[in-house]
Design brief:
The longest helix has 28 residues. Helix 10 packs antiparallel against helix 11 and helix 17 packs across helix 20. This protein is mainly alpha-helical. 32% of the residues are buried. Helices cover 59% and strands 0% of the residues. The protein is built from 23 helices and no strands.
């Protein structure tokens, strides 16, 4: 975690600069209209929460720090305001601005633009379920556990009552979606997506956004099994091969598979990033992109870190450990441009055949590992070691396996000879110890 994560302070402006930012960027009176009347049931985004607790903030795992706006970003704010003021709203222009460098700049604008990117009617009223209905849902206790474990996703230093209110809202938000759509399966990581929208737009609009995404961008992740998700993760390897064949071969040889990028895809990187500004920037980008864009970003991130990957052993554990931690200093803006170009050059349809072939091999490996076992009598107890190793391999999550890389199956003759040699060595060493003890002169 970078040291910057512990410095939670407002941007530092001179009075003149501050006035200019407020004038050029956004109508602050409009944004804050009614803010003083907010209750714990209608909390604003993290910026308002932080402003209320500037003194005595405690360090948090997720940094909510901001930087002053540049002249270019202030001009971009004006462009976003202009697109929002058109009648009808220029949704195509907003999408272009969300994709371009800097995204939607700040949460005040995101509150207004994110619903437009998804074509939502934020004035539509929805009925809240009762607490009894929430508790009756089969996933209620799991959702509560996940929400209680997600404290690092909340702004630091907020009063206890507000934090509890946010957690209650997050729990209700998640359950409302899966109650309304019973065919959707809650997954761990879904709460990381929901909490970001809750912090920026509040519960009412966050519900509409999560409803839209759960029946669109995220629907493949919400199937009863992980098979579809496992299938989609395979897209990263054809992309890596097209950009960096040597890296592709190295990763394939290591057997690292795709599990390192599973949380990236499931949570839109919300679970894996330490900087709040990076999370919301990616959400700007993904809301304006096709559903598989997180995987194109994943391929860009992996290729960007190729030198780091080559610097560690060609080993599954080493490479997985490296890639599962995303550094704070990644140049996300250039990576997002690269991902967009990748998508334009190699759209999903052009990779489909390769992905199908990879997944077919994965299914074949799965069937092989799940085949019925015929009991065998081992002459030597040491032989059961290989049996246990095979069982561990068989029980690994299938999406964690590389399709054509399998644990080597040793012939029984090799196992017998190796086991006999090990037992013989052990007996020899014990006999040597006994001889030493017998020949030693006791001390009187």
């Amino acid at each position: 975690m970078g040291d910057s994560g512990s410095n939670i302070s407002d941007p530092v402006y001179s009075e003149d600069d501050s006035d200019k930012v407020h004038k050029d960027c956004v109508n602050q009176n409009e944004i804050s209209n009614g803010r003083e009347n907010h209750s714990v049931n209608a909390l604003s985004g993290p910026q308002e929460l932080i402003a209320a607790e500037q003194n005595g903030c405690v360090a948090a795992e997720l940094s909510f720090g901001e930087a002053p706006l540049s002249r270019v970003m202030r001009e971009k704010c004006s462009e976003i305001e202009a697109a929002l003021s058109e009648d009808p709203v220029d949704a195509l222009k907003l999408k272009t601005l969300a994709l371009s460098e800097g995204g939607l700049v700040n949460d005040a604008l995101r509150r207004r633009v994110w619903p437009q990117l998804l074509g939502l009617d934020t004035q539509a009223a929805t009925e809240l379920p009762t607490h009894k209905e929430l508790e009756a849902h089969a996933e209620y206790h799991q959702v509560v556990l996940d929400v209680n474990r997600s404290l690092k996703r909340f702004p630091p230093g907020i009063p206890y009552e507000q934090r509890v209110a946010l957690q209650d809202q997050l729990t209700r938000l998640i359950l409302r979606v899966i109650i309304k759509y019973p065919h959707l399966q809650y997954y761990q990581g879904y709460h990381d997506v929901a909490v970001t929208f809750l912090l920026v737009v509040g519960e009412a609009v966050a519900f509409q956004i999560m409803e839209k995404l759960s029946t669109g961008h995220l629907k493949d992740c919400m199937e009863p099994t992980m098979d579809r998700t496992s299938y989609l993760l395979n897209y990263i390897y054809p992309l890596i091969y097209r950009v960096h064949p040597e890296l592709y071969e190295y990763m394939e040889r290591s057997g690292v598979g795709t599990v390192f990028c599973l949380p990236w895809f499931l949570t839109w990187y919300g679970h894996s990033l330490n900087q709040y500004r990076d999370v919301v920037r990616l959400y700007d980008y993904f809301l304006a992109s096709p559903p598989l864009m997180p995987l194109y970003v994943a391929a860009s991130v992996v290729v960007h870190r190729s030198n780091e990957i080559f610097s560690v052993d060609c080993d599954m554990a080493c490479i997985h450990s490296l890639l599962s931690q995303i550094p704070d200093d990644l140049p996300f803006e250039s990576l997002l441009k690269q991902a967009l170009k990748l998508y334009e050059d190699y759209p999903p349809i052009s990779l489909e055949a390769e992905v199908q072939e990879r997944f077919k091999k994965e299914l074949q490996l799965r069937r092989y590992d799940d085949r019925p076992r015929t009991p065998r009598i081992h002459r030597h107890n040491g032989g059961t070691i290989w049996h246990h190793l095979a069982e561990i391999n068989r029980l690994l999550p299938h999406w964690a396996l590389v399709p054509h890389v399998a644990i080597p199956r040793f012939p029984s003759r090799f196992v017998f000879v190796t086991t006999a040699a090990l037992i013989g060595l052990y007996a020899y060493l014990r006999m040597a110890d006994a001889l030493v003890m017998n020949n030693s002169v006791p001390v009187r």
